[in-house]
Amino acid sequence: MSAATPQPHATHTVLGAGPAGTGLARELVRRGHPVRLVDRRGEGPGAAGVERFAADVSTADGARAAIGDATVVYHCVNVGYHLQAEVMPRVQEAVLAAVEATGARLVVLDTLYPYGETGGAVMTEDSPWQATSRKGRMRAELDERYLAAHRAGRARVVLGRSADFVGPGVLNSSLGATVFPGALTGGEVAGLGDIDLPHSYTYIGDVAAGLATLGERPEGDGRVWHLPTAPAVSTREILTMIEKRVGRPFGITVLAEPRPFGPFDERFMAEYAEMFYQHTEPQIMDSSAFERSFGMAPKPLADTVDATVTWYEEWLRSR
């Protein structure tokens, strides 16, 4: 796949200011792009080269105002888990309409949900979409609409799929605030489901770098890519790596079924129950196609653990 020449002076608009969107904005600035970072409030820590912008992109007017004259738009919007089935289709409708009107390219941050239960089979971009959960079917339907818009020539779209996030700034993840605070303070950490099964985790910095690469490389448009992700190991192996890094043992509370723990309250876990299969069968994501095509390797898990522990140490000191 031949490289395209990046456009360093073109505006890149990032929709969503969570860990992925914020990290992506920083990565795009590092690559020389002017960036607009959009969420409903337009507040938060500023960064050189990043314009904060307030808009509700679940509305047509909000999406169009947010996108402005951007050349590339990145959809990293997420909402409360209990609102996803209602809100995410509205966001798609508004954002797709806006990029169709402006001609901007659209890079969508996606999940593994459309694959559904795989029985432990390795997930590649060619794996069948066989989701049976409500949120999995919703995601699959949205993805097909994105790709249909591209095939029809209405928009230029590419999707980057990630496994569970891990890394600096990542709190609401199965390898986030349920694990690192307890590990650093000698408390309990949570392990979801069968922690001896292999499970893929994607470093949040690789999410940002992967999406930025898709934004700069339009020859990848019109398909799904798996963002760079380190080879899967068991969650127990990662917990052991964390133990060695923090220099102390910790207790592991294994949640064999969904129940509240740490940042995951009762409402979240009730909604997450249909997705809990991700922790009772191997979740193995293969990102080799992206790595070969774009020449980008994922961060090794040991380095990911180091970076994440360092961030959580500072986060705990600041609380």
UniProtKB/TrEMBL annotation:
SUPFAM superfamilies: NAD(P)-binding Rossmann-fold domains (SSF51735). Residues 16-220 form the NAD-dependent epimerase/dehydratase domain. Transmembrane segments: none annotated. InterPro entries: Epimerase_deHydtase, NAD(P)-bd_dom_sf. It comes from the Bacteria. Gene3D superfamilies: NAD(P)-binding Rossmann-like Domain (3.40.50.720). This is Epimerase. It comes from Streptomyces pactum. The lineage of its organism: Bacteria, Bacillati, Actinomycetota, Actinomycetes, Kitasatosporales.
